[in-house]
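lol ok so funny story. i was supposed to be doing the assay writeup but got distracted and ended up predicting the structure for this chain instead. priorities right. anyway since i did it might as well share w the group, maybe its usefull for someone
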Amino acid sequence: MNRRKLLKMIAAATGASLVGADAMAYVEMPAATPLEKTGFSKDDYVLWEAVCDTIIPRTDTPGAVDAGTPAFTLRFVTDCYDNNQLAHFKVGLVDLEKRSQQQFGESVAALSAEQRHDFLSVVNNEANAFNSSETAGQGAWAVVTSKGLPHYFTLMKQITLFGFFTSELGATKVLRYVSVPGRYDGDFAYKKGDRAWAPEF
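and the output, tada:
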């Protein structure tokens, strides 16, 4: 799987093109902003870590937290999102925390894994409905969306998937990885359920 295929996979999984993908046009990426200089607080990080862990939890394979996805993605959105996209992402963090406090009386990070799953599943369903709506950006969701962007939770899913599947653990423990491509084989054996191949960068 190459980078283009990975981006198509993320778009198919989230119903929207990957926000911030233009940054990958660099031949050589500039140095990333250190996490402590991204502008995200420790509370933001704890909240975001819980969200990432819920989107890709550890099972019989590593999860997003194991792969260092939370730190990588906060640096990515800081460096690769434009101001509108970054503000949209931050509004989403605030909205998730506010809704969790209203519904459970606790922060997202304090919820059990099952509670977080159920809570974020509802938000995900709302995001899917919003993204497919002809009135996107109007009504109640206007306060948590920005014109021309998908629902904030869609951005969160996208960047989590991207961060995880381009990490060493995601590429080698969940996907199948060949560091040096071999010969072309147009009749390679495939069994239903086989893992996808890792992107070639």
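The CA atoms of residues 59 and 174 lie 11 Å apart. The chain has one domain: 3-13+38-174.
back to the writeup now i swear
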